[in-house]
């Protein structure tokens, strides 16, 4: 195309008659940045986790429960632990400090002295919800289970999403892109409110990965993963970009080799779109001096 600079081109109508001429005065080649470019230039990935403890997961004492811990084989992972372990180990290497805020929702967290239903509580029972690494998530999960937790409901996503969005707003200047991982067993109760919060969150440096465990109908979750069109809330507000990826964990129960690809399929593009929407270019990479 460069050799066409300065060359006059005729514009022809459909009927074959000349319509005018056009001349290219210059060509600019603009290389689109990638997620790797941003990470190399100082941007960091930060992971947070929200785990579903609603009653729809099944009575804790029943083997059919997704949170069931077998007393005869306590080392065997629950279905939630399997999801935490497999998904967490995919995302952990991208987090710069590997300290993850971890929340539970839809339960009475008696292990931290609360008898009321909470839709967003720190899984470690501490004021600071951060734990260290995937192993820290698994330990906090087991400690909560053994410490006493009452599965309840309903399945509300909004409180944890609002808490994380407020946290991100206070850290926008820190060059962090946040991935919020929801692990849940089925359809959410506060769909309209969740869509509204996702639309708002589309303007923040964050993506949401929803992992479905169990065999429930996840069609509404797939609605949140609005591939092909932007999510719109009940007030007509449209998301500035797609920030949700849904993965049904049971689809990989026999072979997790494709899990890595599917979990991260949309995040790089979502990150780059956020940067483009906000006019953020990768910082120049400093070269070592010898």
Automatic annotation (TrEMBL):
Give any single GO term for biological process: cellular response to calcium ion
| Annotated InterPro entries | Copine (IPR045052), Copine_C (IPR010734), VWF_A (IPR002035), vWFA_dom_sf (IPR036465)
GO MF terms here are: calcium-dependent phospholipid binding
**Listed GO cellular component terms?**
plasma membrane
Boundaries of each VWFA domain copy? 46-267
* A Pfam cross-reference name: Copine
Known Gene3D superfamilies for this protein? von Willebrand factor, type A domain
Which portions of this protein are annotated as coiled-coil regions?
A: none
Protein name, entry field: VWFA domain-containing protein
The taxonomic lineage of its organism, from the top, reads: Eukaryota, Sar, Alveolata, Ciliophora, Intramacronucleata
């Amino acid at each position: 195309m460069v050799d066409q600079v300065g060359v006059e081109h005729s514009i022809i109508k459909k009927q074959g008659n000349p319509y005018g001429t056009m001349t290219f005065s210059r060509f600019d080649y603009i290389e689109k940045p990638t997620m790797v470019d941003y990470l190399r230039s100082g941007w960091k990935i930060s992971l947070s986790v929200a785990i579903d403890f609603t009653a729809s997961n099944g009575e804790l004492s029943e083997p059919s429960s997704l949170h069931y811990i077998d007393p005869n084989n306590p080392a065997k992972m629950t279905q939630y632990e399997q999801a935490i372990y497999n998904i967490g180990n995919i995302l952990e290497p991208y987090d710069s400090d590997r300290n993850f805020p971890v929340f539970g929702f839809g339960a009475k967290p008696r292990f931290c002295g609360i008898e009321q239903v909470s839709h967003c509580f720190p899984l470690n029972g501490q004021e600071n919800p951060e734990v260290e690494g995937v192993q820290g998530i698994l330990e906090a999960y087991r400690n909560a289970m053994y410490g006493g937790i009452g599965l309840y409901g309903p399945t509300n996503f909004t409180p944890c999403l609002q808490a994380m969005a407020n946290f991100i707003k206070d850290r926008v200047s820190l060059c962090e892109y946040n991935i919020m991982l929801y692990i849940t067993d089925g359809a959410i109760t506060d769909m309209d409110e969740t869509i509204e919060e996702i639309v708002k969150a589309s303007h923040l440096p964050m993506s949401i990965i929803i992992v479905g465990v169990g065999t429930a109908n996840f069609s509404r979750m797939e609605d949140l993963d609005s591939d092909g069109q932007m999510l719109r809330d009940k007030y007509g507000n449209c998301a500035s970009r797609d920030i949700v990826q849904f993965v049904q964990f049971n689809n990989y129960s026999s072979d997790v080799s494709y899990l890595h690809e599917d979990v991260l399929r949309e995040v790089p593009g979502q990150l780059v779109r956020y940067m483009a929407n906000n006019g953020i270019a990768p910082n120049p990479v400093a070269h070592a001096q010898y």
